[in-house]
Amino acid sequence: MEGIADMGGTPGWGPVHPPRRAEPVFEETWQGRAFALATLSGRIAYGGVNLDAFRHALERLDRAAYLDDGYFGRWLNGAELMLTDSAILAPGALDARARNLRGEHVAEPPVPEPAVPDYAPTAEGSLRSVATAPAFAVGERVRAKALPVPGHTRLPGYVRGHTGTVEIVQPAFVLPDTNAHFQGEHPCHVYSVRFASRELWGADAEPFALTVDLFESYLENTS
């Protein structure tokens, strides 16, 4: 979907700073707790691990919830959205509880009837086997489809409609576009596609090559 999460290739965010060599996994204790809470919330809300549904929750956050609270704050906001999606929490329940813990006296919404999706992955992880042969080969020119995507996708906006070259044919993976919405895994092959920077951003772009992993359903022949 087109939203704040599709930031790749967009201007105005300043320089990218590589991680420090000895950077800890969690800079502060609360960040590790946020990671654990988000992971647990996904299991409770969806009846199992669905990374695509979690990513879809993050990309549906508004700009403030996505950016202003930092990386792990975003995870907490996504966890709350997952739990309200599945009616584990009522909308506004966390805000009301936080206000009461601060000594205020506000009414908390009643606990709703849970509506957890009927979801069970066919296997662990995202790798799957498919009977069909890959549609594209190494060295083949392909175009990323220029289609609006109303729901979740891993097709970046900045490559849509642009042409690149297949570098690697990857194994088949669960398709995020359907799995995020509990509409089936629909696994398909994945391709590492190399794009020229000037193909993506025009003649004034610094010359370099960018490789993006794209699902087969995102690609089409250039002819």
UniProtKB/TrEMBL annotation:
Catalytic activity: an aliphatic primary amide = an aliphatic nitrile + H2O
Record key words, sorted: Lyase
Enzyme class: lyase
GO MF annotation terms: nitrile hydratase activity
Lyase found in the keyword field: yes
InterPro entries according to UniProt: CN_hydtase_beta-like_N (IPR049054), CN_hydtase_beta_C (IPR042262), CN_hydtase_beta_dom_C (IPR024690), Elect_transpt_acc-like_dom_sf (IPR008990), Nitrile_hydratase_bsu (IPR003168)
Chain positions covered by the region annotation Disordered: 1-20
Tagged with keyword Lyase: yes
Family annotation (Pfam families): NHase_beta_C (PF02211), NHase_beta_N (PF21006)
Domain Nitrile hydratase beta subunit-like N-terminal: 1-107
Domain spans labelled Nitrile hydratase beta subunit: 128-220
Source taxon at top rank: Bacteria
EC number(s) recorded for this UniProt protein: 4.2.1.84
Functional summary from the UniProt entry: NHase catalyzes the hydration of various nitrile compounds to the corresponding amides.
Protein family: Belongs to the nitrile hydratase subunit beta family.
Protein name: Nitrile hydratase subunit beta
Organism, scientific name: Streptomyces javensis
